[in-house]
Specification:
Belongs to the class-I pyridoxal-phosphate-dependent aminotransferase family. Pfam families: Aminotran_1_2 (PF00155). InterPro entries: Aminotransferase_I/II_large, AspAT/PAT-like, PyrdxlP-dep_Trfase, PyrdxlP-dep_Trfase_major. One of its GO terms (molecular function) is L-aspartate:2-oxoglutarate aminotransferase activity. By secondary structure, the chain is an alpha/beta fold. The chain is built from 15 helices and 13 strands. Strands 2-8-7-6-5-3-4 form a seven-stranded mixed β-sheet, sandwiched between helices.
Length: about 400
């Protein structure tokens, strides 16, 4: 009898992707409550700019786009992003600080490869972005939950984090605006985490995928980059997917300096070789050329957030615990089914696809995440009827 091959126990220990699981529930919906409303995945609810699409198409047909590029990304995009970051944060950032990646999920995984080894641990705000936890599990790195409480607006507490650090801790991850809650971390909180990481010899990994959807008055959202020593302990992550509506082209970025960046080049060469070339070409143009368009989309998203807040305010028993950027974190009425059962019934019976809190870590059995950015105002206005319809059913 031949031996059966085995798979990695780390991969086996990793949970299944949540969004496909939720869409299995939605596949049972028969249309009784109206058209399906899919609030599961954070995707822009509007198309890319027409000029960007044209440039993507032209670039894809060139021989340059078909060939290998620099390991850390094409110079034009690194220069454009560095200039944009410097303007946004009001701090001196340079192309040599920037590495372009094949999406921000890969950026996170590669950053963790540099920052920690199997058996080490990383503090992750809980509730967490599930792909972050999945990546850590696959790497053999322990996820240490950093509890973020509704009564604190889901803002992590640096003092609480300090108490969780031990000899195996290598990094603290912050995600702001947050996925799944939408919480926006105050500048002072981020500064205190940066100081904590410097004092304890840890990396601060700051994921600002949704920073282009911050309120205009929140610029800059922190002053971490104003300290020239940031390159010794801070790693910044960014995504082009939401801001430019190009998630399928997989382009993100890691901003880091010094020893981290030198070691990261090994990881970039091994895991991606180079980022997608056509998208880099188009985005290098788009960063400056589409600035007004990005600002208009930020206003559009703010309008959807306000509409969602208004829509759910009429509901009895439901509580909006956090809202921002693309997301609302909604607490279920007391005494009813838990979040997993509620999300399944909402998808299958009411055509409202959401993600239950347990997908985002422990202690979230009474919450749903709704990605309101996906849909227009009429769909947002229809959400309360679907939630009420669930209880009537």
């Amino acid at each position: 009898m031949p031996f059966a091959p085995v798979v990695s126990p780390l991969v086996r220990a990793t949970g299944a992707p949540p969004i496909p699981a939720a869409r299995v529930w939605a596949a049972r919906y028969d249309g009784r409550a109206g058209p399906e409303i899919d609030l599961t995945q954070a995707v822009p609810g509007y198309p890319p700019h027409a000029d960007l699409l044209q440039r993507l198409a032209r670039a894809a047909g060139t021989t340059d786009a078909a060939g290998y590029g620099p390991i850390d990304g094409d110079a034009a995009l690194r220069e454009a992003l560095a200039a944009d970051l410097a303007s946004f944060y009001g701090a001196p950032l340079h192309p040599d600080d920037v590495a372009i990646t094949a999406g921000c999920n890969l950026a996170f995984g590669m950053a963790m490869t540099v920052a920690a080894a199997p058996g080490d641990s990383v503090l992750l705000p809980a509730p967490w972005y599930f792909n972050h936890h999945m990546a850590l599990t696959m790497h053999g790195i322990e996820t240490v939950p950093l509890p973020c409480r509704p009564e604190d607006g889901f803002i992590p507490d640096p003092d609480r984090a300090a108490a969780l650090i031990d000899a195996r801790t290598r990094a603290i991850v912050l995600v702001t605006p947050n996925n799944p809650t939408g919480a926006i971390y105050p500048a002072d909180t981020i500064a205190r985490f940066a100081a904590l990481c410097r004092a304890r010899g840890l990396w601060l990994v700051l994921d600002e995928t949704y920073r282009d959807f911050l309120p205009a008055e929140a610029t800059p959202p922190h002053t971490v980059f104003a300290d020239p020593a940031w390159r010794d302990s801070v790693v910044h992550l960014y995504s082009f997917s939401k801001s430019y509506c190009v998630p399928g082209h997989r382009v993100g970025a890691i901003v880091a300096g010094g020893a981290f960046r030198a070691e990261m080049m090994k990881v970039l060469d091994t895991m991606q070789i180079c980022p997608p070339r056509a998208a880099q070409s188009a985005l290098a143009w788009a960063i400056e050329a589409l600035r007004d368009w990005r600002d208009a989309n930020r206003t559009l998203m703010a309008g959807r957030a306000a509409a969602f807040r208004t829509a759910v305010s009429q509901l009895q028993g439901w509580r909006l615990d956090a809202l921002g950027a693309y997301f609302a974190y909604l607490r279920l009425p007391e005494g009813g089914p838990d979040a997993a059962a509620t999300a399944e019934r909402l998808a299958a019976e009411q055509g409202l696809a959401t993600l239950p809190g347990p997908f985002f870590g422990p202690g979230q059995q009474r919450h749903l995440r709704l990605a309101f950015a996906n849909v227009d105002l009429p769909a947002i206005a229809a959400v309360p009827a679907r939630l009420v319809g669930l209880h009537r059913g």
